[in-house]
Design goal:
The chain is mainly α. Helices cover about 80% and strands about 0% of the residues. The chain is built from 15 helices and no strands. Helix 5 packs across helix 13 and helix 6 packs across helix 12. This is MFS family permease. Its main location: membrane.
Amino acid sequence: MRIPLPAVLREERQFALLFAGQALSTLGDRVTFVALPFAVLAIGGTAADVGWVIAAATVPFLLFTLVGGVWADRLPRHRVMLVSDVVRCGTQVVAATLLAGGDARVWHLVALMAIFGTADAFFSPALAGLVPLTVRPERLQEANALRGLVMSAGLVAGPALAGGLVVAFGPGGALAADAATFAVSAVFLARLRPRAGAPERAGDFLAELRDGFRAVRSRSWVWSTLTATAVYHLVVLPSVFVLGPVLAERELGGASGWAVVVAAFGVGSIVGDVVALRWRPGRPLLVAAAALAVGSCQALIIGGGGSLAVIAVLEGVTGVAVSLCFTLWETALQTHIPEGSLSRVTSFDLLVTVGSMPVGMALAGPAADAFGLHPTLAVMTLVGVPSALALFAVRGVRRLSAVAEPGT
């Protein structure tokens, strides 16, 4: 039986090229996320060393993402992404070679992941700005939903694939597989011919950075939604990544029970992306705000005392909401932010949201120790849900339409 391709892949050849490379690369990233800790442990590293290696990728990303946004608005974005892919491919090849030869040390992995994170800081803002140059406006949400679908599927399939690769070929083999995905992505990017964007320029860096911040500050729908999503990453997600496993160990049967909850969320995320493929609401940020409020209930769901089955089903519902929210948010930015500023605005988004997560994760554990696990989860909900609902009071959020209008 032949499965029909989504219309955006049939009709938008440039996006199809971009999507083909990124789909495989996204899966490779999910493999690395699982394989990297095992690589550290395989060379005699400790749990603290695992943290250092992961932080080595995260910290440079946060330090350089604003720089990446400026450069992605200056230069052809697919060329910026191509260089980033080549650099990240190289880091994974070196890491895989060192691991395979038994020569890897923790400091090697720290240094390589720092280079990886720096290159990633240039890639992500460029990708957000490139998608609108490869697809017609009426297909933009469909394109973002399709990318989201791949990321959600990767959350489900990636760990299983990573486990198989680590068992069969060791952590080095898994990292080598990721390197191959970056090489494939680079090949597709080299073939890409997107529509012309803003002309190349070489202005004052700080002035361009200020212009990007002004583009955020001057639009109430941007800064208010950015604030709400930052609260979600700061307050709600730590309930999933930090406190959820702790509660599962105490009340839900341990790792196997938690795996059911995580899988349910992943399946819900896939459903949410499928919904976004089909449905284009007239007031996208109103729908996104409602979806974010549903997604922000995760702390209450996890800590509400329900059975494993009830928690899994409700987490599946939040997965639908979270995927729909962020697809609509990304599409709104790409629709209403001028193309020449889009990567800089995205870099501020990435800085605030990605930067909020480590802070929230660092605070979640001590808060639970001090006030109790269930009370902490309840407070997380009392902060997260109203922050999302507050978006309904913002005029710019209520008025923003699915199509570009002057003055948004």
